[in-house]
């Protein structure tokens, strides 16, 4: 893709006018591509194109917008292998999981297409005779979408599908770390004429391009997935124009393994929730609070599962590929080393796998016991394949430790005590709680962070309605 035109404005491809950023293969540390960045003029023109196209797009019959979404889904599926190859190459994700990402994106488009006949208004009784009040839902306008690197195609579609079905237009800025699958998807959308010119626009580049989008007065809403600190910067920039924000940020999910839990079920679920995508999932279980009565038994089962996972080249039949880049590798390996210095015991895993290519960012599924609240591993999102185990003795201790974070995205609980489950459901301060199962959201659910994990939320009814605003119309008919 080096040298490709990666800026798409009003249906026309352009070369980025600013220097490019390299995309690195995390298996070999070789450069896959250089993606040129959008210049200021290009960012402005992309936003203006979205603003010009918006009224016509909003006045199309909704089923026509649904047809466009379905056409995009069909395109993605037709090119499933090609897109999966790109995702696997840039993220380091096992190929079969990258194929699932493409299927997931197509299902998402189909689900959101079905909202064409479901965005409803309300009729209210008025205070005056011969008057009716209508509440209708109208689009917000121009939406800027900014994505993170861990699910490059899905995060783009998770924003574009609901925003477009609701009648908004969009400027997308994919992550600079793994932009290729998103760029290719938009090339396919363009080549197949899935959308009218200007409805979707693409600008590539890093944080500076994102910041320029966020501070433009024609951008009515910013929908972003990424780090908490970036979310705070975006919110501050949005304040200048009072643009709406929807921020899907990080997490530090607790998982409570109560003494009556089905330990095999819990170990399977936590192995997936801690190590899937090499731990690079916002809902990953990052603090595992295990009741002292079952602590050793649970740890043994988790270690067995961790040791059974295959780490290696994403093209092979493996469970985990490498971490995404060197910066992240340093952060995760430092977290593993520091945890041991601070008193934790490495039960399995760690970094450095001699049989794998020397430059890959390899970290094995890692279990660390003896973790306490004052250790760094407890406090911050590590976003790596690490399962930190904390021993607990009571319900109160479990809840207090689970809630001891400024994040509020997801939490897990394993128990068969119905009363304890119902209590915990109320006591845990998180937006997404998994009881006796691993992570993984439903299309019709609601993936939303409380506290510093963000605001807005995605999926389902609430995930589409957030791209609308309510207009109240007072009808007098005397
Ligand atoms: P990041 O915040 O570094 O980057 C995210 C995006 O923001 C990138 O496109 C980047 O270019 C852009 N950006 C950076 N500075 C900006 C600025 N000042 N203004 C506007 N845009 C700017 O995050 P990341 O490292 O790509 O992603 C990892 C984080 O994402 C983790 O914390 C993870 O938990 C979170 N995440 C959350 C969810 C969720 O749904 N809640 C999903 C996936 C990832």
TrEMBL record:
Record keyword Oxidoreductase present: yes
Alphabetical UniProt keywords: Oxidoreductase
Family matches, as Gene3D superfamilies: Aldehyde Dehydrogenase, Chain A, domain 1 (3.40.605.10), Aldehyde Dehydrogenase, Chain A, domain 2 (3.40.309.10)
Signal peptide range: none
Superkingdom of origin organism: Bacteria
UniProt keyword Oxidoreductase, yes or no: yes
Residues covered by the Aldehyde dehydrogenase domain: 20-473
Family affiliation: Belongs to the aldehyde dehydrogenase family.
Listed PANTHER family: SUCCINATE-SEMIALDEHYDE DEHYDROGENASE, MITOCHONDRIAL (PTHR43353)
Protein name: Aldehyde dehydrogenase family protein
Record lineage: Bacteria, Pseudomonadati, Pseudomonadota, Alphaproteobacteria, Hyphomicrobiales
